[in-house]
TrEMBL record:
GO terms for molecular function: 3-deoxy-8-phosphooctulonate synthase activity. SUPFAM superfamilies: Aldolase (SSF51569). It comes from the Bacteria. This is 3-deoxy-8-phosphooctulonate synthase. It catalyses: D-arabinose 5-phosphate + phosphoenolpyruvate + H2O = 3-deoxy-alpha-D-manno-2-octulosonate-8-phosphate + phosphate. It comes from Flavobacterium rhizosphaerae. Pathway: Carbohydrate biosynthesis; 3-deoxy-D-manno-octulosonate biosynthesis; 3-deoxy-D-manno-octulosonate from D-ribulose 5-phosphate: step 2/3; Bacterial outer membrane biogenesis; lipopolysaccharide biosynthesis. InterPro entries: Aldolase_TIM (IPR013785), DAHP1/KDSA (IPR006218), KDO8P_synthase (IPR006269).
Length: 271
C-alpha cells in the first residue's frame, strides 16, 4: 500500500514508521482536540507520518453498562473537525455494513475490529467505499490467514489495505505478540503493530478489561526492531478516567519520549 494514498498524510519520505494514535473512544470535542494537538506537534517535530485515531462508537464492550459513545454523528463530526483543524487524516472503527458509508463521509481510513475481520460483508462494505482499510488481525487467527482478509479488499477493487497485529489469545485472560507475524504479514500487506491492545488482559471477572501499560515501550521497541511499517497506540491525558480501555493506554505525557526512542531504533535498523 502506498501511504500517499491517505489524504493529508505527511513526511512519507522521512524514512520513519507511520503512526496511528489517539484515544480509544471519542468522549467529547475538547478531549479529542487536546490529544490531537499534542500528537500533531510531536509527530511534526519528529517527521512521523501520522493518522489520528478515535472510535466514534464502541460496540465490543464486556458489559451492557459500559460506555459505547456520545452519538454516532456527533463523534464523527468531531473526527472531521480534528482533520480540518490540524490537517491530518483520521481513522475509526466500523462494526456493521451500514457503518461503512456513513463513517466514510467523515474519515480517511476505515478500521475493521479484530473480532470482526472474518465478516466478509463488513470487509467488502469497507473496501467498496474506496477508503483505505485497516484490518485488525483476529486474536484467534494466524498471521498467514490474514492474507485471505487482505484478498477480500483487493478483490473489491481496493488496493489500499493494511493489516494490524494486536496480539494473540494466550489462555483466557492474556495476549501475546508473536513477532514472527510481522515479517510474515509484510509479504502481502503493509503491517502495523497495535501496541496497546496487545497488552490488554481481557475477560476479567469484573467485566472490565485489564492491561499492562508498563510494557508499552518493550512491545513498541520490538515491533520497530522486527520491521513493522507502522505503530498503533492509544493514548489519553487521564487514562485512569478514560471511558474505554484506560487500563492499557499510554499517558500522553510519555508519548514524545517514546516516539523519540522509537525513531532512534528505526534509524539504527534502517539508516
Amino acid at each position: 500500500m502506498d501511504l500517499n494514498n491517505i489524504p493529508k498524510i505527511k513526511y512519507t519520505d522521512s524514512g520513519n514508521f507511520f503512526l496511528l494514535a489517539g484515544p480509544c473512544a471519542i468522549e467529547g470535542e475538547e478531549m479529542a482536540m487536546r490529544i490531537a494537538e499534542t500528537l500533531v506537534e510531536i509527530t511534526n517535530r519528529l517527521k512521523i507520518p501520522y493518522v489520528f485515531k478515535g472510535s466514534f462508537k464502541k460496540a465490543n464492550r464486556s458489559r451492557v453498562d459500559s460506555f459505547t459513545g456520545i452519538g454516532d454523528e456527533k463523534a464523527l463530526k468531531i473526527l472531521r473537525k480534528v482533520s480540518e483543524t490540524f490537517d491530518v487524516p483520521t481513522v475509526t472503527d466500523i462494526h456493521t455494513e451500514q457503518d461503512a458509508p456513513m463513517a466514510a463521509e467523515y474519515v480517511d481510513v476505515l478500521q475493521i475490529p479484530a473480532f470482526l475481520v472474518r465478516q466478509t460483508d463488513l470487509v467488502v462494505a469497507a473496501a467498496e467505499t474506496g477508503k483505505t482499510v485497516n484490518l485488525k488481525k483476529g486474536q484467534f487467527m494466524s498471521p498467514e490467514s490474514m492474507k485471505h482478509a487482505v484478498q477480500k479488499v483487493q478483490d473489491s477493487n481496493n488496493q489500499n489495505v493494511m493489516v494490524t497485529d494486536r496480539g494473540t489469545m494466550f489462555g483466557y485472560q492474556d495476549l501475546v505478540v508473536d513477532f514472527r507475524g510481522i515479517p510474515t504479514m509484510k509479504q502481502f500487506a503493509t503491517t502495523v503493530l497495535d501496541v496497546t491492545h496487545s497488552l490488554q488482559q481481557p475477560n476479567q471477572a469484573a467485566g472490565v478489561t485489564g492491561g499492562r501499560p508498563d510494557m508499552i515501550e518493550t512491545i513498541a521497541s520490538a515491533g520497530i526492531a522486527t520491521g513493522a511499517d507502522g505503530i498503533f497506540i492509544e493514548t489519553h491525558f487521564d487514562p485512569a478516567n478514560a471511558k474505554s480501555d484506560g487500563a492499557n493506554m499510554l499517558h500522553l505525557n510519555y508519548f514524545e519520549g517514546l516516539m523519540q526512542r522509537l525513531v532512534a531504533i528505526r534509524k539504527a535498523i534502517n539508516p
